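Hi F.,

I've been meaning to write this up properly since the lab meeting, where we talked about keeping a consistent format for the predictions we share between groups. The idea is simple: the sequence comes first, exactly as it goes in, then the structure tokens exactly as they come out, then a line or two of notes. No screenshots and no reformatting. I'm using this chain as the first example so we have something concrete to point to.
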Amino acid sequence: MTSLFTVSISCANLEEAERVARRLVEDRLAACVQVHPIRSFYIWQEKLEEADEVLLVAKTLESKLDALEASVKALHSYEVPEIVATCIEFVNAEYAEWFRSVLPEDDIYEE
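Output, unedited:
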């Protein structure tokens, strides 16, 4: 079975974040997406920037990562959106069961 991942996606504002989150869940690219206001500091075009942003934390399967990335890029306002996936090392059995019931694996299995 494919691995479970969390994916961090920073968005410019709440409207964009909610639009991306809804689409990912509706299209079954994520089982759940959480929305968090954040303050970011980063270098962009050789200049220190700071911005209020909204961070999405999407829960998905490894087999969905490419489609999730394509969807985020199509919906996102940033030239270079943050899409950072991290493999989940532990998940309680009940949550994993729910997770996999929401996101079918489309018969894709790890070898």
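Notes:
Residues 107-111 have pLDDT under 50 and may be disordered.
Helices lie at 14-26, 65-75, 93-102.

If this format works for you, I'll send the rest the same way.

G.
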